[in-house]
């Protein structure tokens, strides 16, 4: 363990390329995306894997080892990656194209928009380091990736919570016709939702647990946090329900509006994403269009260029750690 | 018959017939330009010879079945060349001549910038320049993966050489040894803001592509025999390398008063000049 010499305490480090969001002692599964893709590929000859020099850091190397003849290394060239994935789809293949979320959403946007989405091609874009999952600073923190992708007509966006969900999402999006943007958790990925008998359905929000006082609407790793918050507050602070929304587009507005308008609960949307243009604003819009205006709060990253540093520190600072969320909820409920 | 869809001649007559096809493409383009009163007619006239060789000689295609799996793929990266491309599709019998009257109009299958979902035989939605060649790399990889011997042609403008993605693709095509990929670069030396060499210099282009690992040919794009030979050589070249043909073309080619006009991204054409230009081509055809 890396120890601070002067204090003798463990030093929090900026884990970046090898980042795992799992906390010490948490149950995890290794490379669920890579293994799930291999499984789909065994049944479907049209699945191919493509990457921009990041197979090892998106768990695609598992697929590359199992199916070398269906793996295409495109080099550190994200515009090429997306354009060529589109070309491959036009020839009848279903490419899973991987890179970091910042490079797909920012650098290759026009290629995703024009080559892939405008023709509704069957390309699955799977991106590691979504939102704030690295301490590298803004060059690697894709805090606005969902906002960017939501603007593309016909783009399906999924934000899985854990390994259990990733295993189910991969075959589901492979079966779905059309472009998909998937936020990827890689490496040792937490296992959480298996305890709740959770079943992923594309386009469906699922109530993971019910509660009388607060409804947390969340996606991705924030659902894991929401469940921790619910447990932490169950002692008498508040009874917290968690509605997991793994498909951000198209949004399951019906379920969200139904749950948010039930029982006069405080509605908190929690997302690993900037407050601008993500799940929070999508939910707010859906509620207003449905004539519902519950008490509404957002747990989200600020509209700012975030700091570099250790991930736990940053999650605390920007309010998306379990501790920070509990504090926010208590203040809102007071 | 999959190659040479049109009843064109052989041997001695091939060049003469291609010349007729090229001028037919010019006429169709001029008629479309007249519909809108504007258009990229300078570029269309300049690239007509290349398109005639492509669509009336080199490409494997079935006019009645534009999505036939065995077809050679022809990508129009420079979507604004739609006016020229539609003219070639008409000449190849893929879309009916009558449809040119709808060019750029509401509900037309012939939008001013080419899009895949609008037009039979249009492989991609081009226009966001610098995208054709990266798509071509993916299609060429895909064709090779499924053992389909078809070629992918990517037609692009010299302005697209400014785009970084073009060179990502150039490096990748060589890296993957894509011998089924043929890039066609129309060097007319004119971009939106002026003469290409003053916008972002791309010469020496032959050497650049060669250094990237391509089999390179550079020919006068308005010399039909040179264009024909270059297409044949690109297809038949034995090395496992991508191929590029750089065509130096003259905007307005075939209509002397447009060839001499001041060069712009949009060449000025007065309302009465569309028919005058067609008459020039007709007169040339009568002499032949």
UniProtKB/TrEMBL annotation, chain A:
This is Transketolase C-terminal domain-containing protein. It comes from Rhodoplanes tepidamans. Residues 27-191 form the Transketolase-like pyrimidine-binding domain. CDD domains: TPP_PYR_DXS_TK_like. It holds the Pfam family Transket_pyr.
From TrEMBL, chain B:
Residues 22-275 form the Transketolase N-terminal domain. Its cofactor is thiamine diphosphate. Transmembrane segments: none annotated. InterPro entries: THDP-binding (IPR029061), Transketolase_N (IPR005474). Signal peptide: none annotated. Keywords: Thiamine pyrophosphate. The keyword Protease does not apply. It comes from the Bacteria. The keyword rRNA processing does not apply. Belongs to the transketolase family. This is Transketolase. It comes from Rhodoplanes tepidamans.
